[in-house]
Amino acid sequence: MMTQPVIALLGGTFNPIHLGHLRMAQELVESLQLSEVRFIPAANPPHKPAPDVGAEQRAAMVRLAIADNPVFTFDDRELHRTGASYTIDTLQSLREEMGEKVSLILLMGSDAFTKFDTWHRWQEIIQLCHIALVQRPLTADEHAPDVDHNLPKSLGTFLHNHYTDHGDDLHSAPAGFVTMHHITALDISSTEIRNTFQQKRSARYLMPDSVIDYIQAHQLYDI
Ligand code: ATP
Ligand code: MG
Questions:
Q1: Helix axes 209-218, 55-66, angle to 10 degrees
Q2: Do the beta carbons of residue 106 and residue 28 sit within 8 Å?
């Protein structure tokens, strides 16, 4: 019988965190029977320009957003490292802490996965964790290319080699599998929320009220 906990990791810039992140995590808790989802804000995201809002404030918003859910936890290890926030370093650090047997699952939207082969030491990542993919809604913007189409060849091969339809595989092995899960499609992105604030429109019902209150109190995003 499986006795080890299964811990999911959700990394991101969270500039700011929104209901798309939270709902994705909640639905995967249920479909993958997760004991915990760790939200891990990136201090210095390697593939984005430096965020206008600092890591401490992005992290504070994550903390507020997850405060009322005991399954959601906060992990600030990337805030304590200098240089680019590489996932491989985070995984190695988690493995040192938790040992080899715990199942770790990296949660990822399809937009992130289509660029996965540009991540630092990307081929080593799957030796340290599983990856659970969700489709991001297909919109007119650059988000969410379809995971099944237009993948670079290297990622197509990667998917072929690691893909499983059996959720149990992610419980019985500590790392090595990729799965894909259907979730309620919420076409919400931090980019659109930043635009909303800049245009002096309301972001209610796109993100928790506590996070909106924080943004107002600290006058983030030019509001
Ligand atoms: P930005 O627009 O600034 O890139 P974002 O909304 O994409 O922000 P990130 O912090 O970049 O948010 O995303 C972190 C992770 O959460 C990524 O794996 C991303 O694919 C996933 N994610 C973000 N929004 C959603 C959503 N609405 N539905 C499903 N997954 C999402
Ligand atoms: Mg993004």
A1: 150
A2: no
Q: How many domains does the chain have?
A: 1
Q: What is the CATH number of the domain that holds 98?
A: 3.40.50.620
Query: Furthest-apart CA pair in the chain: how many Å?
Result: 54
Q: Are 180 and 32 in contact (CB under 8 A)?
A: no
Q: Rounded distance, CA 43 to CA 88, Å?
A: 14
Question: Does residue 24 have its Cβ closer than 6 Å to ligand 1?
Answer: yes
Residue 15 alpha carbon, nearest atom of ligand 1: 3
Model confidence pLDDT, tens digit, residues 75-110? 999 999 999 999 999 999 999 999 999 999 999 999
CA of 49 relative to ligand 2 center, distance in Å: 12
pTM of the model: 0.95
Question: Nearest 5°: CA angle at 61, between 134 and 92?
Answer: 60
The Cα-based distances of 55 to 48, 93, 199, 203 in angstroms read: 13, 19, 24, 21
Q: What is the tens place of the pLDDT at every residue in 178-204?
A: 999 999 999 999 999 999 999 999 999
What's the CA gap between 72 and 208, in Å, rounded?
15
Query: 90 is written with which tokens?
Result: 């985070």
Domain that holds residue 30: 6-187
Task: Give pLDDT < 50 ranges for the chain.
Answer: none
